[in-house]
Please model this.
Amino acid sequence: MRFWEDWWFGNCSLATQFWGLYVISNHKNYCMADIWDGVDLKISFRRGVNETLMQDWLALVAIAESITYLDDCDAIIWCFDNNSKFSVQSMYSQ
Model:
C-alpha cells in the first residue's frame, strides 16, 4: 500500500488531504513500510514549511501514530457471499 497515493485513511488519499505537504515531499510512491516504521515518520521535503504546513505535518504524524501493524496475512475477501469466497453464482446473484 502506498502511503500518499492509496486511499487508506479518511475519505480520500493522504496526497489529496495533505496536498501542500505532498507536492514538496521527496517520498512519493513509497509504500507504507518504507515511510512509517512504527516510531518515526520518514518523510523529507524539498523546502521548509510554513505554520500552516507545520500544522498539517503534525496532523499527518498523528495519523501515522494511529497505524498498527499486525502479523496477520492479507487476504482477499469476497463480500457477496457468506463464506467470503468468490463464486460465479454469488456474482450473478448481485
